Amino acid sequence: MFSLNGLFHFISQVPPSSQLGLKYLTLLSTSNYFLVVFLIELVAGLLLLANCYVALALTLLAPILMNIMPYHVFMEPAKVAPSVFPTILWVLLFVRERAVFRGLFQVSTPALS
Question: Is the pTM of the predicted complex or chain greater than 0.85?
């Protein structure tokens, strides 16, 4: 829903209360960075809703969530709660799909030549 809102602006947004947050979001908006982020969010959300390529969708959403959380923690701490919910949902899905990601958490030994 929020990715669609980012693309079509049908829900009014309250501007950030901090000057730093406002500058940050203005920069991202004017550079069209958000266009790419919202498209990735939309594709990942559709993949999750269709219950296909769930691991790919989680992989696409991880860096986005890892940018949303620090933004709210450091620039908009009063509004951190809405960013916690999608992060919790992501973690729950990740735990459900952890077998797919098992190889990421294995230590590999360097090949001897």
Answer: no
Domain parsing of the chain, residue ranges: 2-101
Rg for the chain, CA atoms, rounded: 17
For residue 18, the tally of other CB atoms under 10 A from its CB is 15
Read off the tokens for 54.
């769930």
Give the side-chain half-sphere CA count within 13 A for 72: 16
Q: What is the dihedral angle through the alpha carbons of 71, 73, 76, 80, rounded to the nearest 10 degrees?
A: 110
Whole-angstrom CA distances from 19 to 15, 24, 30, 83, 90 are: 10, 9, 16, 19, 29
Measuring CA to CA, which residue among 47, 48, 34, 46 is closest to residue 5?
Answer: 34
pLDDT per residue over 39-72, tens digit each? 999 999 999 999 999 999 999 999 999 999 999 9
Structural contact between residues 75 and 24, judged by C-beta atoms closer than 8 angstroms? yes
